[in-house]
Every structure is written in structure tokens, then in C-alpha cells.
């Protein structure tokens, strides 16, 4: 009996009234972003997707990481320090996560990362499939994991789905050598997904009209990100009820546009906008520059950096705020927008990527990226407007992780149904 014939007769989700398959299949998630012991909040959106899919499938995760030796000097190397401390195998919310290592030369070998990841992925699949084979590979991020998964899928005859999440198409696919590899992968997998319609258009533009592509957005944990008593939350965080709080949540790096938000806040302070306070939740390479700007413009009483906070604490900072501002220069579909709206606070954000698919006049305000004058105007208007938290929350009611998982289930089952009778090569 062939590899895929073992699964003939299993009910497809598309023929089972929208319910998951009656028998559990084995799915391998391949991603460069997933919660780990060193950074539990890293890639939590992919973690949530995996957690809900694990209710329907026997699911495992592979997060390939660059090899870095354990040493006392590793602390000087940022993410490399994190890599050196990760175990080979870990369990997260009932899901087995593997951290296989591959050798890299930073910056020099970027064009070959996919081939390197493919080699360890091939070894992992053969090792872990001795007693129970995988049915499908789902790779989040197109490079290097998506390309690597496409290579391995071709070699082993395994169905592959790849998901574009933003930076892979907006940044990685702009590099010549990576772009050609990503295009090949899109044309040689069984299905592609994108987290926004804007990304879906880019995906089809790169892969061509012959690819099978789906729109599957991100979700939000409605229990964690919910309406709360603002005054009570502010007391718990030591914040004043008199302040008008603008919240930024994200990485402090160029693409997030934090500089333009800081300049807008400086202008608002100069115009004596009363009780204005900007709270920055996050960290990154621009942290030192942000701190210098705050000191140089004497904004110490108006801008507060709280750094990286545990994921379970983010809903509190959102519930305590009057508005979330996301001044990104480019995006996929940022989860913080869904999370803020689910908490009942409006969003002022750049009209880039998938943001305009979520934010509208009823739940926030859009501005052109890189324009601090427009950011300032939109923030002043938004802070003066009376918003209805219940309506803000209802604007993202369909974005639940359960709904997202069911979308992926339908894609998996359609692909697997079309593969019945094919022969895997191991």
C-alpha cells in the first residue's frame, strides 16, 4: 500500500459539514518564528495557529536555527545567544517543537540558507517518519523555510503548503537570489496562503497565475484581548486616569516607523496637547536612538519605554490606552491591530499592507506612511473622538484562531484528497 493510499476513505473537511477530519493526520509545521524557552512570546501568532490545528491533527513543529556554540561570550551576539541556549526538543502547550541546527556564515551565505535548511529538514523527516509518516508540510515564511520545504516536498513526494506573512514578500523577495528561489517554490508547492489580500496579490504576481493561492488572515485570542475597566487597569499599571495614552507595540526597527511617531508626539507636545503620553512596548536595534531622541527633546515625562513584556500582559497595556498607533512603512497583517480592536481601543495606522483591510473610519484612522504631520493630525482627531468599545471589538469578531484553524484544515484536506494514490519516496 502506498504512502497516501493509507489515508483513502478518510472524510474530508469539505464533505463533513465544515468539521475537522474524522481521523487524525500527521502535519509538520516548519517556521523561523515560534515560542521557545528563551523567548516565549516569539511568533506567538504561529503558535496560536498550531495550537488550534493540533486539536484536529497530530502536529509537530520544526524551527531550524543557526548553529552557535555555547560559551560565555555568546551574550554579546544578540539572537545568537538565544540560539545557543535552545534545547534540541521542547514541548509547548502539548506540541513537540524541534530546534535542529544548521551552519551559516552571517550575511555571506544568505542565498544558500534554503539549501542548508532543506538538508536538515530532509534528515529530520526521514528520522521521524520511521514508524508514522507525515502527511503534509506547512511552512510559515517563504524564505528560507518555504523554499526548503518545497525542495524536500519534491524529493519525498510530500504535499507542501507555504504561507507568506509579510517580511518574506516585502523584504526577502526583493533580493535577487532569494526572489528566484521563492518564485520556484511558489510554483512547485501544492498550495500558498497569505495573511492579507494585499500580500495575496503580491504572491500571485511573483508566482504567476498558475499557483494555487488562498487568503488566510491572522486571528486574535478573544478571551485574553477583551474589554476591561480602563480605570482599574490603569491603577494596576501605575498609570494616571488623566493621561491621554497613545500606545505603540512592536519592534524598534526602521520598518516600524517609530521615528515618525516620536516626531509627531514632539509636535503635539509643542502644541500643548494636554496630558499626552506615549507608551512604547517593545525593543529592538533603534532603542538607543529612541532614548537619545527622548532626552534631546526633553520628552522624559511624555514618553515611556517599558520594553518587551510577556504576551499575557499586552492586553493590559492595550486596555489602559486610548489609542494604538502603528506607523509602519510596510506590513503584512499585524496582529497588534486585531488585538487592540478586540480590546475596544481604536487604531491609528499607516495605510500599508493588509492594515486597510481591517482599519476603517468606524474603528480607527489611516495615514500615509512616513508623514509625521499626518500622524499628528490623525492622533489629535482620534483622541478627541468618542469611540464605542463594543463596536470596536465587534469589528474584528470573525478573526478567531478557531476560524483560522478551520480555514487551514479545509486547505489541507483539499490537497490531501487530491493526492490519494500518490507514492511518497521514503
What integer is the average pLDDT? 90
Strand content: 15-25%
Helix content: 25-40%
Rounded to the nearest angstrom, the distance between the terminal CA atoms is 13 Å
Shape: globular
The biggest beta sheet, please?
8 strands, mixed
Q: Could you tell me the number of beta strands?
A: 16
Structural class label: alpha/beta
What does the model show?
By secondary structure, the protein is α/β, with parallel strands linked by helices. About 35% of the residues lie in helices and about 15% in strands. The protein is built from 15 helices and 16 strands. An 8-stranded mixed β-sheet has the order 4-5-2-1-7-8-9-10, sandwiched between helices. A 6-stranded parallel β-sheet has the order 13-12-11-14-15-16, with helices on both faces. A two-stranded parallel ribbon has the order 3-6. Strand 1, helix 1 and strand 2 (about 60) form a beta-alpha-beta unit. Helix 4 (about 140-155) crosses helix 6 (about 175-185). The longest helix is centred in the C-terminal third of the chain and has 19 residues, at about 400-420. The chain is globular, with a radius of gyration of 22 Å. The protein starts with about 25 loop residues before the first strand and ends in a 7-residue tail after the last helix. The model is unreliable at about 1-20 (pLDDT under 50).
Offer a quick outline of the entry.
By secondary structure, this protein is an alpha/beta fold. The chain is built from 15 helices and 16 strands. Helix content is about 35%, strand content about 15%.
Structural descriptors:
426 residues, alpha/beta, 6-stranded parallel sheet, 16 strands
Amino acid at each position: 500500500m502506498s504512502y497516501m493510499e493509507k489515508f483513502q476513505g478518510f472524510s474530508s473537511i469539505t464533505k463533513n459539514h465544515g468539521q475537522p477530519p474524522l481521523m487524525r493526520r500527521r502535519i509538520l509545521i516548519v517556521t523561523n518564528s515560534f515560542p521557545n524557552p528563551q523567548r516565549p512570546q516569539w511568533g506567538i501568532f504561529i503558535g496560536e495557529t498550531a495550537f488550534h490545528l493540533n486539536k484536529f491533527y497530530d502536529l509537530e513543529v520544526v524551527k531550524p536555527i543557526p548553529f552557535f556554540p555555547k560559551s560565555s561570550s555568546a551574550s554579546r551576539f544578540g539572537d545568537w545567544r538565544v540560539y545557543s541556549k535552545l534545547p534540541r526538543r521542547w514541548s509547548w502547550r502539548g506540541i513537540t517543537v524541534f530546534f535542529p541546527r544548521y551552519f551559516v556564515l552571517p550575511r555571506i551565505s544568505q542565498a544558500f540558507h534554503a539549501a542548508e535548511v532543506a538538508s536538515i529538514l530532509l534528515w529530520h523527516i526521514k528520522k521521524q517518519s520511521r514508524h508514522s509518516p507525515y502527511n503534509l508540510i506547512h511552512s510559515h515564511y517563504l524564505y528560507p523555510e518555504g523554499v526548503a520545504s518545497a525542495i524536500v516536498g519534491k524529493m519525498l513526494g510530500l504535499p507542501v503548503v507555504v504561507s507568506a506573512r509579510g517580511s518574506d514578500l516585502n523584504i526577502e523577495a526583493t533580493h535577487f537570489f532569494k526572489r528566484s528561489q521563492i518564485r520556484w517554490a511558489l510554483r512547485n508547492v501544492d498550495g500558498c496562503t497569505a495573511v492579507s489580500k494585499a500580500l495575496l496579490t503580491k504572491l500571485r504576481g511573483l508566482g504567476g497565475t498558475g499557483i494555487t493561492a488562498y487568503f488566510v488572515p491572522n486571528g486574535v485570542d478573544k478571551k485574553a484581548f477583551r474589554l476591561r475597566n480602563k480605570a482599574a487597569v490603569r491603577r494596576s499599571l501605575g498609570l494616571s486616569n488623566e493621561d491621554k495614552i497613545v500606545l505603540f507595540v512592536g519592534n524598534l526597527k526602521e520598518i516600524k516607523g517609530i521615528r515618525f511617531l516620536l516626531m509627531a508626539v514632539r509636535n503635539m507636545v509643542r502644541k500643548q496637547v494636554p496630558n499626552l503620553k506615549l507608551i512604547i512596548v517593545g525593543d529592538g536595534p533603534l532603542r538607543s536612538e529612541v532614548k537619545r531622541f527622548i532626552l534631546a527633546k526633553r520628552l522624559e515625562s511624555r514618553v515611556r519605554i517599558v520594553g518587551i513584556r510577556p504576551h499575557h500582559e499586552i492586553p493590559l497595556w492595550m486596555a489602559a490606552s486610548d489609542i494604538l498607533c502603528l506607523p509602519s512603512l510596510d506590513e503584512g497583517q499585524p496582529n497588534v491591530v486585531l488585538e487592540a480592536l478586540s480590546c475596544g481601543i481604536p487604531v491609528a495606522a499607516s495605510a500599508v499592507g493588509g492594515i486597510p483591510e481591517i482599519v476603517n473610519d468606524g474603528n480607527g484612522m489611516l495615514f500615509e506612511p512616513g508623514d509625521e504631520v499626518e500622524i499628528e493630525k490623525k492622533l489629535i482627531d482620534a483622541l478627541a473622538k468618542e469611540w464605542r468599545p463594543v463596536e470596536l471589538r465587534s469589528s474584528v469578531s470573525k478573526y478567531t484562531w478557531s476560524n483560522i484553524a478551520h480555514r487551514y484544515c479545509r486547505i489541507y484536506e483539499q490537497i490531501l484528497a487530491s493526492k490519494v494514490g500518490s507514492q511518497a519516496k521514503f
